[in-house]
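explain this:

___
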Amino acid sequence: SEFHRFGRCPDPNAAWLVTRRLHPKPKREQGGGLNALKRASHLERSAQKMYRVELAGRTIGETKLETADPPMGVVGGRIEFQIDENPYELIKSHCEQSGAIINEIDSDLEFIDTQTIDDLRVYRADGREIEGVAGGAFSGFREEGYYVTILGVPYPFYAEEFPHHREAYDNQFG
């Protein structure tokens, strides 16, 4: 039942409806109190987590995975690189050597946008991989930074690991 996450549903409007049925909005607690404080504390901690980014088994940086598209199981974030080399050159070189597809590239801006890269991995602090059924990709340029995006993180793991993204999405609809 992952068909709705990657545009394979014949009707895009139906995909949204299927997503809402498979991942319904959680019931809201009445009032505030201790449960609301616990939830707020958990969401705040979730939003501050750092995730290790690896390329071909080598740690290249960390990300907060601060961007999301919950119905699609997508998370992403700006990479804080922990390497001496130029990130653009590293990503470009890796794609050329591994055969990963580059969608767009501009050497003047050091802009790069890739399709999924097989040996791109993102891990929680405890070592568990944040796996997406469609994989992970890079995009960005020198002036604004480079981002990693993980596509198709399955539920219920997505909702457990990224409750702040799920709640922000649900709150858009009242």
